[in-house]
């Protein structure tokens, strides 16, 4: 996650779980089981992440100190995430946006630039899990489903998948929050984060994010992924207030193929 003033927030990147894993019995799922299953789900999705792209609609809002809207811009992008490296190593992800309709502030207002929040769930990746403490809270019942509620808290000094970028410098974000996990599959359906350690010395009074995920089917390929549906990021300084909403729609699978072109004009036969 990143943010600049233009604040830039940069989070890990895109996460989703792939359906088709062997379910665990909810009543027998303890915290270690859940963390292991969530980690496997994150890793499995990242291994397939390069085959997915979508449309991303970004709504940027800035508010006055009285809560009135000072600026409101909406842009649309072709969006995809590329991955380098696999397994339990640190995920190396690149978030690519190609503008379809990009809005620009006519008031020259400073806006929040937030990237990578679709992958806030990297907190549960095997590489980052040792950087957090986890605690299972009371289960949550919603729309006929039961979710395990896991609270997490960053351990000071350890790696974090989020950073604040301000005046060309990155400041790691120490985060705490809650995730709702399907105990039968380990898939994370919702995650929210806040600052664990104050950053008021940098002018950041508060930070909050919420990311929701939903199942996306690809019938022609007989595949179904859990992918980001919406990410909301809100930041307050002593004098400014921003909120960005990222909506992800129109998912499709794609494959990248390469071919080699040979210029036959430059190939000369050998002398007999």
End-to-end CA span: 64 Å
| Backbone structural class | mainly beta
Strand count, sense and barrel status of the largest sheet are:
10 strands, antiparallel
Query: What is CATH's topology name?
Result: outer membrane lipoprotein receptor (LolB), chain A
Number of E strands: 15
CATH architecture: Clam
Integer tally of domains: 1
Strand order across the biggest sheet? 5-4-3-15-14-13-12-11-8-7
Mean pLDDT, to the nearest integer, reads 81
CATH class placement: Mainly Beta
Uncertain spans, ≥5 residues at pLDDT below 50?
Answer: 1-7, 11-28, 257-272
Secondary-structure element pattern, one letter each: EEHEEEEEEEEEEEEE
Strand content: over 45%
Helix fraction bin: under 10%
User: What is the overall shape?
Assistant: globular
The total count of helices amounts to 1
> How large is the radius of gyration?
21 Å
């Amino acid at each position: 996650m990143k943010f600049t003033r233009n604040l830039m927030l940069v989070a890990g990147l895109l996460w989703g779980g792939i359906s088709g894993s062997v379910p665990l019995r909810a009543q027998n799922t303890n915290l270690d089981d859940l963390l292991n299953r969530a980690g496997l789900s994150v890793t499995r999705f990242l291994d397939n992440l390069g085959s997915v792209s979508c449309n991303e609609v970004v709504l940027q809002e800035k508010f006055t100190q009285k809560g009135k809207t000072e600026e409101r811009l909406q842009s649309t992008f072709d969006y995809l995430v590329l991955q380098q490296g696999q397994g339990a190593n640190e995920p190396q992800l690149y978030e690519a946006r190609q503008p379809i309709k990009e809005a620009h502030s006519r008031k020259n207002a400073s806006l929040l630039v937030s990237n990578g929040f679709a992958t806030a769930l990297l907190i549960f990746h095997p590489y980052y899990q040792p950087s957090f403490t986890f605690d299972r809270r009371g289960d949550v019942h919603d729309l006929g489903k039961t979710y395990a509620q896991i609270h997490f808290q960053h351990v000071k000094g350890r790696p974090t998948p989020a950073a604040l970028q301000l005046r060309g410098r990155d400041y790691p974000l120490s985060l705490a929050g809650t995730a709702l996990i399907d105990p039968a599959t380990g898939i994370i359906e919702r995650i929210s984060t806040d600052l664990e350690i104050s950053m008021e010395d940098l002018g950041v009074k508060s930070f909050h994010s919420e990311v929701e995920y939903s199942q996306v089917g690809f019938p022609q390929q007989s595949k179904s992924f859990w992918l980001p549906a919406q990410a909301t990021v809100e930041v307050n300084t002593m004098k400014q207030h921003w909120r960005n909403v990222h909506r992800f729609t129109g998912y499709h699978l794609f494959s990248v193929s390469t071919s080699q072109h040979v210029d036959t004009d430059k190939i000369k036969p050998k002398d007999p």
